Each structure stands twice: as structure tokens, then as C-alpha cells.
Amino acid sequence: MESNSTNQNNDIRIRPGRPSDAADIATAIIMAVGDEITEAFAGTHDRVPLVHDMFRQLAGRTDSQYSYKNVLVAEDAATGRTAGLIIGYDGARLLTLRRVFFRQAKETLGLEYDDSLEPETSDDEVYLDTLAVFPDFRGRKIAGRLIAAAIEHFAPLGKPVGLLVDPDNPRAEHLYLSLGFRRVDERPFAGVMMHHMQV
């Protein structure tokens, strides 16, 4: 994802992802999917570092859904520390992008996936895959700024922007509603039915 967004508020700027962000991207993905799904990927708790390594490798590539090229980073302007990030891509590219994930999951974790896995997005939307704000930076409205920057970035595609939210996370759903999203249907993610929202 490329963006010229340099909005500043509370000393936070938003910039495009870089290869050097790969470790932070991996951490953000794990934060976003949560401990339960992360451990399901890992198989056992002691293998969780392998999940981080898998996502770090995917983030450093240019051809995966988790690539730094699909990322906008919120960065502390004074220190350069990553405050949070968002990952998004054209839903029409999902099947191609996630084949790289399938290969990496097999190589790193011994997991077998194929195209029969239910897609979490569709061709007719831009998908916001991951949103995370790191603990030291919470309470500064960074999540909303990242979403707004992503919506602006993807506007030229002329598609609605969609995301999934866990029904057990009403705080997140309230944030999305406040930003203009509306619930359109339900979709599965990792075996759990999620609220599918679009703006």
C-alpha cells in the first residue's frame, strides 16, 4: 500500500509501510487475531514464536496479503516508534495473495490450507484485514485515523471498504459505527462467525 498521507495529530504521523516494519507488522497481526487463534495456528503454546516468525516473513515480502506494501503505519513523529498499523488490500486479490500465506504456513508450521478455505472478503470490496494500536499509544484516537487514512487511500478503486469484527468486541464495533461503517452480513473467520461491516 502506498500513501502520501502525513496527517499529524498528537505527534503521530501516518506513512506507508517499509520492509523494516516486518516485525511490528507480525506483532500487530497477532494482537489483532488474539491469543486463541494464534495458539490454534501454533498448535501448542511453545510454538507461538513460530507464528510471529511466519507473519514477519510474510510482512517482508511484496506478494502476500500481509506485505509491508499493504500497510499504513502510525508512527510517533518524535521517536519514530510504531504506534499502530492497518493492513488492507483489494478483496479481488485475496485468493492470489493468500496462496503465499498457505505456502508459508506449511513451511513454518506444517499447516495445510487450500483455496477451499472460506474467504473472509470478496471481489467487490476493499478489505481491512488487520488493525492494531500498540498499548503505549492507546487512547489517542489512532485507530480512527488509520481507518480514515486507509479509506482515503483506497477511494480511487471505487469499492466499499469492509472489515470483520468479533461479536464479542462491541467496543470495536462501536468505533466502526462512529466512522460510518454499517453491518451488512455475517462472515466466517477462522471458524468464528463475525459481523461484516462496510463503509
3D structure, described in words:
The chain is an alpha+beta fold. It has one domain: Aminopeptidase (3-Layer(aba) Sandwich), CATH 3.40.630.30. It contains 5 helices and 8 strands; from the N terminus they run ββααββαβαβαββ. It has an 8-stranded mixed beta sheet with strand order 1-2-3-4-5-6-8-7, sandwiched between helices. β5 (126-133), α4 (142-154) and β6 form a beta-alpha-beta unit. α2 packs across α3 (94-109). The longest helix is centred in the first third of the chain and has 21 residues, at 22-42.
Topology of this protein?
Blueprint: E1 8-9, E2 12-16, H1 22-42, H2 48-59, E3 71-76, E4 82-90, H3 94-109, E5 126-133, H4 142-154, E6 161-165, H5 170-178, E7 182-189, E8 192-198
Parallel strand pairs: 5-6
Antiparallel strand pairs: 1-2, 2-3, 3-4, 4-5, 6-8, 7-8
Explain briefly what this protein structure is.
The chain is α+β, with helices and mostly antiparallel strands. It has helices at 22-42, 48-59, 94-109, 142-154, 170-178, and strands at residues 8-9, 12-16, 71-76, 82-90, 126-133, 161-165, 182-189, 192-198. The chain contains 5 helices and 8 strands; from the N terminus they run E-E-H-H-E-E-H-E-H-E-H-E-E.
